[in-house]
Amino acid sequence: MQTSTDTIESQSNSGTRRRVFSGVQPSGDSQLGNYLGAFKGWGDRQDEKENFLCIVDIHAITVDQDPEELRRQTRELAAMLFACGLDPDKSTLFIQSHVTAHAEACWILNCVTPIGWLERMTQFKDKSTGLDSVSTGLLDYPVLMAGDILLYSAHEVPVGEDQKQHVELARDIAQRFNRIYDELFVVPEPVIPEIGGRVMGLNDPSVKMSKSYSHIRGHAVRLLDEPKEIQRSIMRAVTDSENEIRFSNDPERAGVNNLLGMYKVMTDKIESEVEADFADARGYGDLKKRVAEVIIEGLAPIQKRYYELMDDVAELDRMLAVSADHARQVSEPKLQEMKQAVGFVLPDHSRS
Ligand code: AMP
Ligand code: TRP
Questions:
Q1: Residue range 4-192+313-351, CATH number
Q2: Ligand 2 pocket residue status of 145, Cβ below 6 Å
Q3: pLDDT in tens, 241-294
Q4: Domain map of the chain by residue range?
Q5: Catalytic residue at 90?
Q6: What secondary structure does DSSP assign to 60-113, as a single string?
Q7: Is the CB of 22 within 6 Å of ligand 2?
């Protein structure tokens, strides 16, 4: 007899690739940290992992936003992710609101999630502090995120450190549902990337490079920056008063470490190879020049592909519609199992 764990395993593995789910907010201009810490790795690993990558527009409306801006940024992010190497034949990159199962799963999971679990979330505390009015959606944000992950029976959830608590909550919700109703859910693991996991600000290597500060001059390299601008930002990057080009954990040397880390991920080299590349370098000026070069070279084909995709929005929308169909095929059966488990009468589709 097949155990319920076997059943879950087989559902979550359509082929031999382990299933990965991640989501990205359609806000702001993507920056180099997004590429090196997330997008690049998703593309590089799409032959070995079965990727589901979701542009989370339903999450985006939990805080104030401009509707036209959200629509524009959603398409821009989709084009950027395809341009960064996500192949629609290998990865499923889709828009969250295209798959209504996400909102439905959120409702069912809301009903097994104690409200205290949500009030404890540090992101909720950070985002709600100082606001005159806080939406119910903002509190509920992590339950929607749990639904995203659990609908796809994902084993792995690559996220930044700041989202780890939300993935742990998704695990708790999965286990609670499994206990109360039926063993339906794979309990997912957060995966925090080591390489490129934290690309730091160029102006201040003690803070993570982020979209939220990309308006500050010299903080970030945006993926659509022109070569001249990239060069200028890198040349201005904060370093230190020593003159040694090697990896280091010393906070005083975080600027140089950050530049070397960018070079390492851009070139797919290991640390010793990177240090060997700079053995003949004359000072930090040389280091910065070469780091800027590999970034400019690496981003050029991405920018070209991005503008091609944005020039043909009808084609982009068609690609997204195909992915959404696939996402629906995978998530809908799980939603039906959830409905069955909690006691809903499933609609009779035999007449349609
Ligand atoms: P966000 O821009 O915060 O919505 O993040 C989207 C994805 O990019 C997440 O997987 C983040 O972990 C990743 N990411 C964002 N900024 C950085 C950074 N500075 N270094 C490494 N990864 C990052
Ligand atoms: N909350 C995540 C962030 O801000 C985005 C996200 C939504 C997500 N749903 C997800 C990430 C599911 C991983 C899995 O970065």
A1: 3.40.50.620
A2: yes
A3: 998 999 999 999 999 999 999 999 999 999 999 999 999 999 999 999 999 999
A4: 4-192+313-351, 211-308
A5: no
A6: HTTS---HHHHHHHHHHHHHHHHHTT--TTT-EEEEGGG-THHHHHHHHHHTTS
A7: yes
